[in-house]
Amino acid sequence: SSTAHKPRGSFILFEGGDRCGKTTQSENLVKHLSSKGVDVALWKFPDRQTAIGQMINAYLQGKTETDDAAVHLLFSANRWEKRESMLAALSAGQTLVVDRYAYSGAAFTAAKGIPGLDLEWCKAPDKGLPAPDATIYLSMMPEAAAKRGGYGSERYEKEEMQRSVAQRFQDLRDATWHTLDAARSIEAVGSDVTRIAEAAIEACQEGKPLEHLWL
Ligand code: FDM
């Protein structure tokens, strides 16, 4: 069309288990897109800087014990409190590369197997949040991920939990989902990432509307 309006940015999400290479791939993608002149920013959830994020951080580091349902709602609130600035950035034309989001939220809590906290319950508080245009799921066997220098010391960084999380992620696959074999080299995974991200950005430039999660 001939409108002078700047096209919206694209919401590109990375999901996966711990040590699958999300951080490396998301940082490399941002560098690549910047070098091509794309207005892009890297976001990460949980955002541990906010008041809610600090409560989540203390929980993840084992400094506090918080009820599982309550902490789940904190993770969700940590996304809702960023919603406005997320929408503002996207509509100003900035592409957001995001490291974890609501799929992690649902997968990690549901993986605990607590009666009542099933996948539907876990998804409910995130309904209506901005949905990603592309979700890049970095798939890796927990055994292989653990060999990458071992898991860290935070809560959830255990092989058994990671196996359960991987199963829940499978239940969350949707139309935005791209599964990449993350056991390959950084370069091989990176070239698939670039292709998926550039297609997502192009679709947004051509007017693809922003969607909302799980309605
Ligand atoms: N995590 C992350 C959750 O349990 N729920 C959520 O909503 C999100 C976004 O927090 F174990 C878990 C996943 C991971 C931990 O993530 C911290 P990072 O990527 O290691 O900071």
Keywords:
nucleotide biosynthesis; nucleotide-binding; Rossmann fold; binds 3'-fluoro-3'-deoxythymidine monophosphate; 5-stranded parallel beta sheet; EC 2.7.4.9; 13% strand; 215 residues; 9 helices; globular; alpha/beta; 5 strands
- What's the CATH C level? Alpha Beta
CATH fold title:
Rossmann fold
- Which compounds are bound in this model? 3'-fluoro-3'-deoxythymidine monophosphate
What is the annotated CATH architecture?
Answer: 3-Layer(aba) Sandwich
Tell me roughly what share of residues is in helical segments: 40-55%
Radius of gyration: 17 Å
Biggest β-sheet: strands ordered side by side in the sheet: 2-3-1-4-5
* Tally of discrete structural domains: 1
Strands, count: 5
Give the gist of this structure.
This is dTMP kinase. This protein is of the alpha/beta class and 215 residues long.
Structural summary, described in words:
The protein has 215 residues and is α/β, with parallel strands linked by helices. It has helices at residues 22-35, 51-60, 68-80, 83-91, 102-110, 119-123, 142-147, 159-171, 186-205, and strands at 11-16, 40-44, 95-99, 134-139, 177-181. It has a 5-stranded parallel β-sheet, sandwiched between helices. Bound molecules: 3'-fluoro-3'-deoxythymidine monophosphate. 3'-fluoro-3'-deoxythymidine monophosphate binds at residues 18, 45-46, 60, 75, 100, 104-105, 108, 156. The site of 3'-fluoro-3'-deoxythymidine monophosphate has 10 residues, from α5. Pfam families: Thymidylate_kin. Its EC number is 2.7.4.9. Keywords: ATP-binding, Kinase, Nucleotide biosynthesis, Nucleotide-binding, Transferase. Pathway: Pyrimidine metabolism; dTTP biosynthesis.
